[in-house]
Amino acid sequence: MIDPSEKLSVSRQAIVLGISRGSIYYQPRPVSVPNLKLMHRIDKLHMEFPFAGSRMLQGLLVQEGFKVGRLHAATLMKRMGIEALYRECHELCVSGLAHAGFRYGHALKRSSNMIAKWLRAANHSRTFRPPFSKLRIAR
Known about the structure:
Blueprint: H1 10-17, H2 21-25, H3 33-48, H4 54-63, H5 70-80, H6 97-103, H7 105-110, H8 112-127, H9 132-138
């Protein structure tokens, strides 16, 4: 792609291609042998416990004798493309007004649509909840 023997300088070739000059000379470092062993074990543990995140995997690895921190485990998981599998909260989880502001405050910050869904769910629970008199009659 970039040929140093060309008439055009390497920096000009990088400009023409739209890449930085530093990326031309960058050589990725190979993964170390201990990290490869660790990644292999993380992969096996992830197949066994797909719900385990970096904290749980770090604990399992320490029990097996590996010396690894949580952030290192999280970095290796990210490098391998592994994430913990868990159920996500849908709009029906946010139906209670008293609890939703505290429990799901982080979810509300993520998207403005979530606020609309939250208010719709709150109005729905207020509108369609039968009054106490009807509950007593039903008993």
